[in-house]
Amino acid sequence: MRVHLPSVTRWLLALVLCVVMMPAQAQANAPSQAPDELIRQSIDDLMGKIEGRRGYFSEHVDELEALVEESLHDVADFRYIGASVMGRYFRNATPAQRSRFVDTFRQTLIDTYAKGLVTFDYREIRVLDQQQASREPGQASVDMEVVANDGAVYPVSYSLRLSGGEWKVVNVIVNGINLGLTFRNQFDQAMRDNGRDYDATINGWSPEVEIGDEEQGA
After folding, report:
1. What is the spatial distance between Cα 64 and Cα 72, in angstroms, rounded to a whole number?
2. What predicted TM-score, i.e. pTM, was given to this entire model?
3. Closest CA to 184 of 59, 82, 36
4. pLDDT (tens digit per residue) in 15-40
C-alpha cells in the first residue's frame, strides 16, 4: 500500500527544518559542541526568530524562504544527502548532474516546506534529556519531540555526521517516516518512469512523495 505523505508530516518537516538551520552560528563558535547540545541551543533561536512573526511570514513567504536558504547552507550536508538520495544512480551521473540535483533538491525543500512552517500549530519543541549513545564514531542521532496545541506528541530524530570537525545533519525521521529513504525511493521510481533519463528526473523532481510501509521508522 502506498499513501501520500500526510499533511501533518509535511508541516512537521517544515518545523524541524527551521530547527535544523538554527545551530549554524553556535557551531561556528564551538565546533566540538555535542550534537544534542547543539540542537537544544537552537530551540531558543527558533522561538526568537519565528514566534510572534508567524502572521508576518505568512504574508512574506519569500523572506522566510530566504532565511531558511541562508541558514541551511551551513548545517545540512546537502552533497552527502544528494548522493544518498540518488543511491545506486549516483555513480553513473555526471558531476554536473550530481551538482544540479543537489541544488534542485535543496531548493524544492525550501520552497515547499517554508510555506508549511507558519501553518502548524505547536505548543512546544523539546530535545529529549536521554539520548542514545552513538554506535559509530563520527555519527550521532538527536531525538526530540514536537507537541501540538491539541496535545499530540510527534517524535523527530536527526541523524548527523562529523565532517571537517563540524556536525552536519544528513537525515531526519519525522513521526516515524524516514525521509532519506522516502526521497531515495522517489528518485528510484522517477528514474524508472523516465527511462533512466537523469536530466528528465532532475527537472521533474518534487518532494511531494508517496511512501510505503517499509519507509516507516529507521
Report:
1. 12
2. 0.78
3. 82
4. 666 666 555 444 544 445 678 877 77
